[in-house]
Amino acid sequence: GVVFGLEGQMQWRTPVDPSQSSDGVVQDFPGGIRWHRWSKGAVTKAREAGHPVLVDFTAKWCLTCIANKKTSIDIESVRAVLAENDFKVFRADYTHRSDKITKELHSLGRAGVPLVLVFPRDKKSEPQMLPELLTPDIVLNALSKAAG
């Protein structure tokens, strides 16, 4: 029993993600979006500071998530709009099925990933929930609207 208890506490079997820095920032490739680790508190803090926010609920095993990222999210035109409008971007990594992310997905009426939310600069406004399958135009239109 003690060995299993220690194993659970030390999480020595959990692989380390080399793309994640100690400050919680993840960048999939040089020049790509610098994603911050998602938490409700971090999103609230960014919104209170007046930033528009993009949140990508994703997982490494989700083929639709991977396609969305490569074709419609982490692309030059989207990166430019994010930078020009001082967006804060967060990744909610559901690869290991986090309970916090599960709870948040359920609160948003979703059973799983993918889910992309775009929060407007106006902190009183609700986020725009993007469709599961994205195109660059869908993402760019949502970002433009949120940057207002």
Quick recap of the structure?
The protein has 148 residues and is an alpha/beta fold. 40% of the residues lie in helices and 18% in strands. The chain has one domain (21-147): 3-Layer(aba) Sandwich (Glutaredoxin).
What would you say this structure looks like, in words?
This protein has 148 residues and is an alpha/beta fold. It has a single domain, classed as Glutaredoxin. Helix content is 40%, strand content 18%. It is built from six helices and six strands, in the order αββαβααβαββα. A hairpin with a 6-residue loop joins strand 1 and strand 2. Helix 4 (76-84) packs parallel to helix 6 (136-147). Mean pLDDT is 89; it is low at 2-22.
Mean pLDDT, to the nearest integer, reads 89
Query: Helical proportion?
Result: 25-40%
- Rg value: 16 Å
Query: CATH homologous superfamily, by name?
Result: Glutaredoxin
**CATH 2nd-level architecture:** 3-Layer(aba) Sandwich
- The structural class is alpha/beta
As for the number of domains, it is 1
